[in-house]
Amino acid sequence: xxxxxxxxxxxxxxxxxxxxxxxxxxxxxxxxxxxxxxxxxxxxxxxxxxxxxxxxxxxxxxxxxxxxxxxxxxxxxxxxxxxxxxxxxxxxxxxxxxxxxxxxxxxxxxxxxxxxxxxxxxxxxxxxxxxxxxxxxxxxxxxxxxxxxxxxxxxxxxxxxxxxxxxxxxxxxxxxxxxxxxxxxxxxxxxxxxxxxxxxxxxxxxxxxxxxxxxxxxxxxxxxxxxxxxxxxxxxxxxxxxxxxxxxxxxxxxxxxxxxxxxxxxxxxxxxxxxxxxxxxxxxxxxxxxxxxxxxxxxxxxxxxxxxxxxxxxxxxxxxxxxxxxxxxxxxxxxxxxxxxxxxxxxxxxxxxxxxxxxxxxxxxxxxxxxxxxxxxxxxxxxxxxxxxxxxxxxxxxxxxxxxxxxxxxxxxxxxxxxxxxxxxxxxxxxxxxxxxxxxxxxxxxxxxxxxxxxxxxxxxxxxxxxxxxxxxxxxxxxxxxxxxxxxxxxxxxxxxxxxxxxxxxxxxxxxxxxxxxxxxxxxxxxxxxxxxxxxxxxxxxxxxxxxxxxxxxxxxxxxxxxxxxxxxxxxx
Amino acid sequence: xxxxxxxxxxxxxxxxxxxxxxxxxxxxxxxxxxxxxxxxxxxxxxxxxxxxxxxxxxxxxxxxxxxxxxxxxxxxxxxxxxxxxxxxxxxxxxxxxxxxxxxxxxxxxxxxxxxxxxxxxxxxxxxxxxxxxxxxxxxxxxxxxxxxxxxxxxxxxxxxxxxxxxxxxxxxxxxxxxxxxxxxxxxxxxxxxxxxxxxxxxxxxxxxxxxxxxxxxxxxxxxxxxxxxxxxxxxxxxxxxxxxxxxxxxxxxxxxxxxxxxxxxxxxxxxxxxxxxxxxxxxxxxxxxxxxxxxxxxxxxxxxxxxxxxxx
Amino acid sequence: xxxxxxxxxxxxxxxxxxxxxxxxxxxxxxxxxxxxxxxxxxxxxxxxxxxxxxxxxxxxxxxxxxxxxxxxxxxxxxxxxxxxxxxxxxxxxxxxxxxxxxxxxxxxxxxxxxxxxxxxxxxxxxxxxxxxxxxxxxxxxxxxxxxxxxxxxxxxxxxxxxxxxxxxxxxxxxxxxxxxxxxxxxxxxxxxxxxxxxxxxxxxxxxxxxxxxxxxxxxxxxxxxxxxxxxxxxxxxxxxxxxxxxxxxxxxxxxxxxxxxxxxxxxxxxxxxxxxxxxxxxxxxxxxxxxxxxxxxxxxxxxxxxxxxxxxxxxxxxxxxxxxxxxxxxxxxxxxxxxxxxxxxxxxxxxxxxxxxxxxxxxxxxxxxxxxxxxxxxxxxxxxxxxxxxxxxxxxxxxxxxxxxxxxxxxxxxxxxxxxxxxxxxxxxxxxxxxxxxxxxxxxxxxxxxxxxxxxxxxxxxxxxxxxxxxxxxxxxxxxxxxxxxxxxxxxxxxxxxxxxxxxxxxxxxxxxxxxxxxxxxxxxxxxxxxxxxxxxxxxxxxxxxxxxxxxxxxxxxxxxxxxxxxxxxxxxxxxxx
Lengths: 573, 312, 578
Fold this sequence. Notes:
The complex is a heterotrimer of chains A (573), B (312) and C (578).
Chain A: H1 11-18, H2 20-37, E1 45-46, H3 66-81, H4 86-99, E2 103-110, E3 113-120, E4 129-134, H5 146-159, E5 168-173, H6 179-188, E6 198-206, E7 213-220, H7 231-243, E8 248-250, H8 255-260, H9 266-269, H10 272-288, E9 307-316, E10 321-322, H11 323-339, E11 351-355, E12 358-361, H12 362-389, H13 394-420, H14 423-435, H15 437-443, H16 449-473, H17 475-485, H18 497-507, H19 509-519, H20 523-537, H21 541-561
Parallel strand pairs in A: 4-5, 4-6, 6-9, 7-8
Antiparallel strand pairs in A: 1-12, 2-3, 3-5, 7-9, 7-10, 11-12
Helix pairs in contact in A: 2-12, 3-5, 5-11, 7-11, 10-17, 12-16, 12-17, 13-14, 13-16, 13-21, 14-20, 15-21, 16-17, 16-21, 17-21, 18-21, 19-20
Chain B: H1 2-18, E1 24-31, H2 39-54, E2 62-66, E3 101-102, H3 108-116, E4 135-142, E5 145-146, E6 149-152, E7 156-159, H4 160-172, E8 178-184, E9 200-204, E10 214-218, E11 223-227, H5 228-237, H6 248-253, H7 257-260, E12 265-267, H8 281-284, H9 300-311
Helix pairs in contact in B: 1-9, 2-5
Chain C: H1 5-13, E1 21-30, E2 35-47, H2 57-66, E3 68-78, H3 82-85, E4 99-107, H4 111-129, E5 141-142, E6 157-164, H5 171-179, H6 195-198, E7 203-213, E8 216-228, H7 229-237, E9 275-278, H8 279-283, H9 291-296, E10 302-305, E11 312-316, E12 324-325, E13 330-333, E14 342-346, E15 360-367, E16 373-382, E17 389-397, E18 401-413, E19 419-424, E20 435-441, E21 450-458, E22 463-472, E23 488-490, E24 494-498, E25 506-509, E26 513-515, H10 524-548, H11 562-577
Parallel strand pairs in C: 1-10
Antiparallel strand pairs in C: 1-2, 2-8, 3-4, 3-7, 4-6, 5-6, 7-8, 9-14, 10-13, 11-14, 12-13, 15-16, 16-22, 17-21, 17-24, 18-19, 18-22, 20-21, 23-26, 24-25
């Protein structure tokens, strides 16, 4: 198709150039609808065990019969401790662990919060690797993790009878599964006095009841900032649960979504497509809100290349599956992880689960976020094209970049402000500060249409780049932020200010938080969650909101509210 | 008269040549798989090791290559043991075992050096295959394989051509009398398809595009403990004793592809003797034929008589 | 065959035919209610002559061919809990760290000759002991300067040390080890040694120490193991730890809710209460005796139990009475020509003798995360209440850990946990009251490892925390082992405690460490080849076209009728043939 000569026949090229904006819309629609195509048959894959060494369920698990007697003994002990002060709890747990031969220590990360941990060194191993079992005192929803702790203690005793461990076992009892646990993991990699080598895998036990029966297990797997454990770990647990005829759910399963929908959709709810779609969407939602609201425990291990999942039991008063089945699932998973010689490296690290047995890998779902990012880029390019065709000058380009840099500096300052000051104050002041751009735009001197388009183009292209980079790290966050902020790309200089104002208001991050806060715990709580999750758990969502979404909003507000200098608005050729 | 003497000499020479047989037995037993889930490959190799030891080959004439330590692996619920059956009746590791190459030492290079005797000057004698032209060698290999290749420790591969060339070098250097090559992997029969040196008998566990399967697993060890082909070979070999007259033809006739779940193959075109004349102990045992070399000149007739006695 | 000077001198001086002296003993020491230490010691000393009948000839050959005058070989596995078990037997002089370790003193004229002999020694031993000692190459060899007896050296003897922490230890190492003994493990105390029982222990160490002294060859073999008695006993009944039958659950009756009938049972603390055990329970068989032992030595083997005899009772087979019975030990002389078993009983198994505490408790582990760098964090705690402790640490780090010694920092904490002093090394100052750098040899990539020796002194009751940082290297594609995603083992550090001459030195080793280096995806070379071939194929075609062809629009070409076009084509074809 190469052509020579000065006669540039722009047949196809010209067609595209005129319709870049239209292409951006197409890309946006494709990105928004992509996820809904994935649950169709043929688009997803069945899960399988990649690492031959795991051999899930091949070793007989013996946590049954008389071990239940010991478990009940520990349950009574936990019942006795349930209303005691934290210091007595810590001392009792230490004693119970050290009785069974564990090296116990207490880690104080705050004056009133202490984490008990015990290490059982592998009897015949070389003690250079470890597996962690976490039994937080309260689970991610704030409920008392009664059976989780009791089963943890019973397993701690039972597992010392075996000498098949190639990796040391560490039992950790933090007061909560978020900040305390994360502090412990950070300290383990820095300066804890007793150690057992690098952590190969972590399981968080969550069984928030003293009922002896449970109906199913729910696996939470998303880590912070888009990190996920190796898919083989989840496949192992699901395979072992299948051998025990135990149903599994992923991320709370479908109950919440099912209950929220109106009843006339019932026939739809039972279809396979809907079930897969709802698990997929709940996985995406879990990845976006990971570290923000309910921290299941596995998130605390993100950042150190530790594969961690939370196995929650759904208690029920019928004895369909008794608590020793839960113990056997953990025992089987530990035996499988124990079989490994190398770290988890064979299976996928980027995936989304549509059900415990179906998944999509990154090549299949990434186009959703990429095409949204592409839409931003294309729209930015279309702004540039219209700008080029309306005449260009070097100083205008510099001015556009200067404006963008100024806005980025402004939002960075807002970010620092939000991190330094109290969240109540922050929550009140931030919307005011960010809305300052509007009077700035209204009272600034008029600027040319071309320049305003150039500024918007720069912002859109930068956002496109940032979203592309973000999509490879945290797909769900890129998808959600991209979708929510996408209508901003359609704002133009000189449009009806009232329409622009309404759109800007609806798409303002703080307004959306306020709106969501009306249905949950309030706007201040949301801001506080964002800020504290960065401080305590190093969750980047707040940074993304303040440095990707907000600058785009600011620029869009600026260009749509600015006064356009009266000159002939040239049409795009 | 001179013609009669000459024809007797020729007859004697032919008789000697026809009764040329082995005077010592060696075994090279290789397990090429690492990692705990390949327990069964180590069990395969150790089963063969135990068989040849039981039938008389001493440790000094067995080269055992095990790519991973299974018996003392911390994952082993029964330390110091390797079982090839879930009934755990027989411990293959026992009290006295000599592993010549273990762990990272089991590489393609070391295997070929072992066969061709191109060794580093520092290599100890126990790690060398010190065979001569009257040695019968039993070579057993097990692991993960494919079409004309065998994987060593999941990191490198040896191809059928490599083994064929190594055997050719051995033939040129007069390092064997006969070789019995047995291999238990997936698509094993492709591994002997390229041999071209004489006096090699080869048997493999499965055809091209066929896998070799494990026989059964032990739920307390948590892995499969033996492969089918080796299991059925052992079932037969357990009936062989040092003085047994069972032949290789009996062994091969006992193969049942339904039970083995794959089609074992036997390559005999390079092998001169008829399989029903080859005793199992010719390869698995250490039945020695003593060659008396006395310097006292002896009459032709007594020499002939002696050769005829040996041929029996 | 060149003999070392000392060896030859001894040969010249020693009269031939001195008697061999051999003795063996077994010591059993309960360390806690559950962990029992068993120590086998075999000592042989022989005149240097070619007619000795006990000394294993293979070892003599190995010594001679490599010109070694001293040889120490160690096989070890497991973890020694110094907090609860105190000092290792014999102050750690014969104790192994994780894996296989070898050091020897070699006589040679020059260093390259000595090194060549060292490698040939390692290779011969690899064949003898079925261990991959042949992997000890220059990248795994160092010459210690202040530990392992380096101080008593003379100039023509070179001391070499090599360690392989990832080597497994199993029956194939025990078999040749036992064959070195005069009775080959068939009679005497060594008849208890069996791979199945030795390798199920919590910690074990096998050592061979060979030296030439006073005109005699001394061979000392020691096997130490810590058995977890409950696991060992249960294994005799059922090798798989299945749950106990309901009647046999061990409940702590002091808890008010403990009610076995209702299925509620708080477990009893293990390792407390009654115990009944025999040697056959522990080792699988009684001590076998045969003619072999009495022919070799007049000294009968001894078996000693180090227990507070008030709380324990021991009965021997055939009602033999103990040779020594005191407050803290009961010893028997094993009678020749009959099997011997002991039955040990106590009502309070947790009452054990106090243990000699280790002068310091040391631990070393890797810290940091990520693929680029990390650090080594060591903690040394002094257990003595009254005097300062000085000790030397010897660390050998593989070349792919690029150590930055300038990042070395130390912090001293007193017994209350308050920080007392901190410091670091700088180019001009590598010595202070607390930490002094004795020797540092930086690594040469692929040639030699990093070798660091430091003298540390800590006051009584204090704790010293040291840390230094390193960077991780990328290896060549073919330098990764087959299980590359596991990581690389780092040898344990050797710590030798210096004390005044009245009490012996103590030696111990820290745990080994596992370093994870950035590991490539080994399927990538294939993918890269395919991808680059495709890209080059596509790009080549396009560029070729762009460079060699000119493109003209069809409408710019002069229009030709069909007939003219055909004629033009024909003329082109005919011109090809002319």
